[in-house]
Amino acid sequence: MATRGFVLYLLAGFSVAVLSAFLISDHESYKLNHLPHRSSPNSVTLDSDEKTWPKLEFDWRIVLATTIGFLGSAFGTVGGVGGGGIFVPMLTLIVGFDTKSAAALSKCMIMGASASSFWYNLRVPHPCREVPILDYDLALLFQPMLMLGITLGVALSVVFPYWLITVLIIILFLGTSSRSFFRAIEMWKEESVLKKEMSQPRETFANSRGELLIDTYEPLIPREEKTPMEIFTFNLRWKKLMLLFAVWAAFLVLQIIKNDLVVCSSWYWILTVAQFPATLAVFGYECVKLYKESKKRKTLGNSESVCEASIEWTVPHLIFCALCGVLGGTVGGLLGSGGGFILGPLLLEIGVIPQVASATATFVMMFSSSLSVVEFYLLKRFPIPYALYLMSVSILAGFWGQFFVRKLVVFLKRASLIVFILSAVIFASAVTMGIIGIEKSIRMIQNHEFMGFLEFCSGQ
Q: What is the dihedral of CA 323, 329, 334, 340, to 10 degrees?
């Protein structure tokens, strides 16, 4: 019921915002047609192509940016959301980059943090099952749709007015952060009950959330200890990893070819449409696999989950996951993030435990963010020295953030800390992106800039 309410909230908010944009577009078009001295809608764009790249010098700006970048990467990877909503405002307001360059550098930081988090998680055993802590099935389910959504998000960023993007981001982030916060409170209460029971003489306990909290305590049946190398090789599933890299490479090749084509030309649209078969093929393969396994286990009376998600894999659930994957990628393309602001909360929503949700979300973001980094590099959208420096900061932050928070979770016996961090990062992103978006929208109104939808082909 709570999930349905959340979906209705997003649909209602997005519908009102988009309808308002259409009304404003009609009003702007009327003024453009009746006022002869008004400039054309495409004569003033949101972000000019002029690059603003400050020099990499040791001063208070770089110190403050390093501190914010380190904390944002650390908490962002732990929560499984990346932190793009924090990096972009930091790079524009504090360091002084233009918006496009800040979005490109944000992708570099997300890639560095997610890669180091992936490397760290390969050495971490699953809290309570003899399976990898990285859920490759969920990664294969969401990665293609996420990358397709990023392509759509980049296209929409050209068409959508800046104020509409700001409103949609605020609606989405406030909704996901509040939903995650209330879920964290529920988990905290269950942990408190379980801790109270564990303080009593040992008995057989029944936890309503199954595997949610058992990882913070000693298992009733001791497991065989594995060496770090055994854990590493067990977590690394080469076949599924190679399939994920194949999808990544296919998208990369298509994007590189598209960059050299004329926008809206015949070959441009052919390559754009060519992304859909590859995406749907991998997604459909994983959907069929999850659906058949779930149906088979249900027939045999086996209640064990097919993967980390505790939901029953039915057609509506698979369609819902597909839409959420596309939505997450679209937000990533609009914002310059890795799409984790949707994927992280979604994994928790479908019953994935916090540790696995964090590891899997950052794992998927590693592919989506690295794809954007390669594209931005070919387009020369960011300065190499800054990119290397900020990536180094995020790599260290991603590793140590995972290390300290997981130690804290075990010490306090509170897995809900990860969900609280997730909620806090999304809320902080909503505040920072909202402030910048509102300020820039007000400036555009004062300058009498066009506030409606732009044409895709002429807006490139």
A: 110
Distance CA 208, CA 285 (A): 32
Query: Which two structure tokens, joined as six digits, stand for 438?
Result: 């509102």
The radius of gyration computed from the CA coordinates of the chain, to the nearest angstrom, equals: 23
The pLDDT of residue 29 is 52
Question: Do the beta carbons of residue 312 and residue 298 sit within 8 Å?
Answer: yes
- Distance CA(137)–CA(353), nearest Å, equals 15
The contacts found for 269-276 with CB under 8 angstroms, 24 or more apart, are 272/151, 275/148, 275/151, 275/251, 276/148
Residues of 368-395 as b/e, b for ≥16 C-beta within 10 angstroms? bbbbbbebbeeeebbbeebbebbbebbb
Q: What is the dihedral of CA 179, 149, 243, 342, to 10 degrees?
A: -10
Q: Tell me how far apart the alpha carbons of residues 307 and 72 are, in angstroms, rounded to a whole number.
A: 30
CA distance readout (Å), 411 to 158, 191, 212, 415: 48, 13, 16, 10
| Confidence band, pLDDT 50/70/90 cuts, at residue 45 | very low
**Mean pLDDT along residues 132-158:** 84
Dihedral of CA atoms 348, 350, 353, 354 in degrees, nearest 10, equals -10
DSSP 352-378: --HHHHHHHHHHHHHHHHHHHHHHHHH
CA distance linking residue 347 with residue 429, whole number of Å: 19
Q: Is 55 helix (H, G, I), strand (E, B) or coil?
A: coil
CB 305 within 8 A of CB 129: no
pLDDT digits (tens, 9 = 90+) for 69-124: 898 888 888 877 777 778 888 888 888 888 778 888 888 888 898 999 999 988 88
Buried b (16+ CB within 10 A) or exposed e, 2-19: eeeebeebbeebbeebee
> Whole-angstrom Cα distance, residue 97 to residue 84?
15
Contacting residues for 102 by C-beta, under 8 A, at least 6 apart:
87, 88, 91, 92, 95, 336
Within 91-220, residue ranges assigned H as helices are 99-121, 136-159, 162-198
The pTM assigned to this predicted structure is: 0.81
Residue 113: both structure tokens together: 């943090």
